[in-house]
Amino acid sequence: MALTFDRIQSDTIAAIATSTAEAGIGIVRLSGPDAFSITGNIFRNQEGKAVSISGWKSATIHYGFIVDPDAEDEKLDEVLVSILRSPHSYTTEDTIEINTHGGSYVEHRVLELVLRKGARLAEAGEFTKRAFLGGRIDLSRAEAVMDLIRSQNEFARKTSLACLEGSVEAKVKKLRSGLLYEIAFIESALDDPENYSLEGYPSKLDHILTEMIDELDRLLLFSKSGRVLTEGIDTVIAGKPNAGKSSLLNELSGSERAIVTEIAGTTRDTLEETVRIRDDYDSEILLHLTDTAGIHNTADAVEKIGVQRALKAIEHAQLILFVLDISRELNEEDIRIAEKLKSFGTRKKTIALLNKSDLPGRITKEDVRNIIPDSSPVISISLETGMGIRELKNEISRMFRLGDIQNSNEVFLANIRQCTLAQDARDSLALVRQSIRKGMPEDFFSIDLRNAYTSLGLIIGEEVEDDLVNEIFSRFCLGK
Amino acid sequence: MDHSFHIKTEICVIGAGHAGCEAALAAARLGFDTVIFTMNTDSIAMMPCNPHIGGSSKGHLVREIDALGGEMGKNIDRTFIQSKMLNRSKGPAVHSLRAQADKARYSESMRQVLENQNHLEIRQGEVTDLLTQTGPDGRPEIIGVRLYSGTVYDCRIVILCTGTYLNARCLVGETITETGPSGMQKSTWLKKSIESLGIPTRRFKTGTPARMDGRSLDYSKMTIQHGDQVVEPFSYSTDPAAVQIEQVPCYLTYTNEKTHEIIRANLDRSPIYAGIIEGTGPRYCPSIEDKVVKFAEKTRHQVFIEPEGRGTNEMYVDGMSSSMPDDVQQQMYRTVPGLEHCRIVKNAYAIEYDCISANELKLSLETKKVSGLFCAGQFNGSSGYEEAAAQGLIAGINAVQKLRGREPLILKRSEAYIGVLIDDLVTKDNREPYRMMTSRAEYRLLLRQDNADLRLRKYGYEVGLITRKQYEYVCWKQQKIRDEIKRLKTTKVGAAKENQEYLASIGSTPIRTATSLAELLCRPEITYPLLKGLESVSHFDSVKAAEKCSTWNSTDTRQAFEGPFSLPESVTEEVEIDIKYEGYIERERKQVEQFNKLENRKIPADIDYDDVESLRLEARKKLMDFRPSSIGQASRIAGVNPADIAVLLIYLEKKKKMESGSVSRQ
């Protein structure tokens, strides 16, 4: 659902600003033109008298009580009320924070009261939306807050926090100011050749651009892996019927979700589940698992659909866990899957799992290596005994370089929009470098330098483009 | 009872400098009775400063003026004494034509054009008052002007082009004279009348170097600077053969440490550094004092010695404008090689004058506060003849458009340097005289001096300053360019021995397989004319191609084209640029698309900024003052940041949705 347009900023919003867990203090926050009058209606000082809140100084705290004026001023809680006047608040609007005694019951009663008195319940991220629209924070920080609200695991939360502190902004700003200097230098030299010489400049610029390109490449590389961490890995479990796919899903998710039987072809549909696994170094990984029906030629109509879905799921996956049954010879179905995987080349990562390794083997690791994509790891597991599962988790972590990333202080771009723009900027810089090496006159450099400058500016909202409105609305609708 | 003598006309142009001349000519040529006022008819189109027209980015302006139907390009083609295409070693975007003018003849020639123009009257005299009445919308509207003599000209439009005359004074050291440029009478009374209409004025200054007796200079100590062997005219209407004349040289010399020492030692006697000058000067056209102070590390500065005309010995000392006292001027000039025994004819001086902030104007150059009052030239805070002429032309055109009840001609930044110039003046916060520069144009690979006709002729034609025949020629040219590009892209040459030998002979590398002419043209060492050598062995059926290409049927233009490689240079030049720089041009086009999206998001004229709730106070005030016409223009106002633009975009979107919502409910 799109944001309702007529609500924008004409009203006062309220929400519980602290976490829902039991805590010492709970804060109910109000923001908007009526924040002061609504609070004035329900706040009483130490003597139990109504006071004029609009007379309070900004950034001050006041002791008193929240009462229900419709119930003969029944006291709801003893509170501290802080006041922030527009534009010196997070949202840049008049803001009130009511510090209640913790406990979700009290908080909720106070919230209900302010809603009854004219405030509207804030939508997810709405305080941030107002902060952005009020010019208080830039787009990358606003996005970070949205991501924080949505973040599903510890790493995602950490990344969003770093973004919120402006690390992306700082990095992008630095690159931009470097570019601006070069653009300005070229322009000055064109307008005032007497005082600014371009002698030897192209090779100097080439050097500067190479450094910037490397920096953007690093940023993009880490962001890509970083996105895996924040957004999770799309993973497909593939294998012929009864190889143990559903058991693997259950093992990883720790539940009996898929029906596991000895009859081949039990899973006719695809099953999907998001699971959180940890490696030995306590790195947390989010897997979006899809268990597919075995890929084999079948006449069964229902199963046929399942097989098609399985192939489709593989198309979209980043990681394929290829389960093989070592108690049976490799057959045509195994080969078909392997060929399918091979056709993706290095675009997808594959781990081959030799299941039922507790039983006598009919196939060896070597047999499997010969049919799967080059340098894909092969791990012996047993879903009966739990053997090899730890190794599997560590392998996934290693493949996606999760440890490196989680322990580094690198900056990450939070989402696809930012990554696309950074990639655009990088490509533009590469074009400038190409112009230099082709010996083009200096005035040609500006076109692509400006493009790079604009792309970077769009990341942090220092440049505006027409589709910004859609961008903002699509961002702020998420997480609802 | 008003007893004054009344004369009726439609448009009054105040000032006959470069802006005034273009404004008056445009208005009269479009059939409206126009009177142009000047302090002195001998100062029509006077060049009180440098003796050249054009130069980096200014050459672009002249070409654009010409493409729209202005006079400046034609007039300099008639009166130039040297011409040069600058920056030939750089990309085509920064090529720029510059011509030395014979000042006296330039002025005389323009005066003749004015004198012989139907619907146009020249009147010497000082305009002291703008006469207005309250219009239907409550704003004042122009009804006439009053001269110092008391005579009133009734009119509906006034175009103010007062240049540097308004309340002017000239400074040479401690000496101050209350005159306009070059000793002309200043305008004393008009300023009050302008201010009484609620339009505030401010004070700018500019300066000019000394003129010297050419016989006292030793040119053997300088580097001679010749014009181009083959001269390219400014105007698309000038016959190229007519401009291949005998040219007069210029000379290059340099200041030195001794010059700088003298200046430093006497800074306290410079009116600027002594604090006598109140006006703000141009940073980009600094006096020699400014250069010595600002570039303290430089040991020398360029000085160009340029003739003022064929009929005078006076030489202009370009690069050394100054407001030092007489004795210091003589001392400092005489340190420059070649100037050791110079005799000064006219001193360098600084001039201060009143002008307005162009923020008072709409993009049409009409004032926001007074209906029918247009402004152009240095009065709007610009500097330079070309900048003035460009505004004059647009003000003249838009004055007429207003009387016709039509939409004004507003050129976008992506269409013309004139668009950049006017948008910068009107939208940005300019605190010094504004000079056109290449760097101010974002899309300069598209806004080249060579394609001004392709960009702008259609507007000149729509307005009525360009004839049908002239316009049809441009359409023909456009078609030919497209056809020829297609031909070069589809015609391939093989790796035959003759071709390889030919390529080697012109310093290029062999081809391996069949290659299109367009691909070969992309090689830096290959120019369009060199392709001819390959064509002869390509077995290209020229007759068939000519038939295919020739879709234009205008009789007089068609005969110019008879087959491949017989196209005029004006066509092949465009073809070569379009092919050689295709990728860059394409990327710049994309930038323009993005830019136009914001330009095309119009802000309704009746928007109530108080209704846009989360705008910051500063932005709200700026937007209320400017009342920008589009989101694009709003984004260029100083003090309005991207977050404000986002707020505005959302507000407009919200309004649009609500309005369309209420319609659908009915």
Tell me what you see in this structure:
The complex is a heterodimer of chains A (480) and B (666). Chain A folds into 3 domains: 5-136, Gyrase A, domain 2, CATH 3.30.1360; 162-227 and 415-477, tRNA modification GTPase MnmE domain 2 (Four Helix Bundle (Hemerythrin (Met), subunit A)); 232-406, Rossmann fold (3-Layer(aba) Sandwich). In chain A, β12, α11 (365-369) and β13 form a beta-alpha-beta unit. Chain A is flat and about 85 Å long. Mean pLDDT of chain A is 79; it is low at 1-9, 258-266 and 476-480. By secondary structure, chain A is of the alpha/beta class. Chain A has 16 helices and 13 strands. Chain A is 45% helix and 17% strand. In chain A, the strands form 2 sheets. Chain A has a 7-stranded mixed sheet. Chain A has a 6-stranded mixed sheet with strand order 9-10-8-11-12-13, sandwiched between helices. Chain B has 666 residues and is of the alpha+beta class. Chain B folds into 4 domains: 6-204 and 353-463, FAD/NAD(P)-binding domain (3-Layer(bba) Sandwich); 211-352, Elongation Factor Tu (Ef-tu), domain 3, CATH 2.40.30; 468-586, Orthogonal Bundle (Arc Repressor Mutant, subunit A); 601-665, GidA associated domain, C-terminal subdomain (DNA polymerase, domain 1), CATH 1.10.150. Chain B is 36% helix and 17% strand. In chain B, the strands form 6 sheets. Chain B has a 6-stranded antiparallel sheet, with no helix packed on it. In chain B, strands 7-3-2-11-22 form a 5-stranded parallel sheet, covered by helices on one side. A 4-stranded mixed sheet of chain B has the order 1-10-9-8, with helices on one face. In chain B, α2 packs parallel to α11 (452-463), α3 (72-79) crosses α4 and α6 packs antiparallel against α8 (326-333). Chain B is globular. The N and C termini of chain B lie far apart (58 Å).
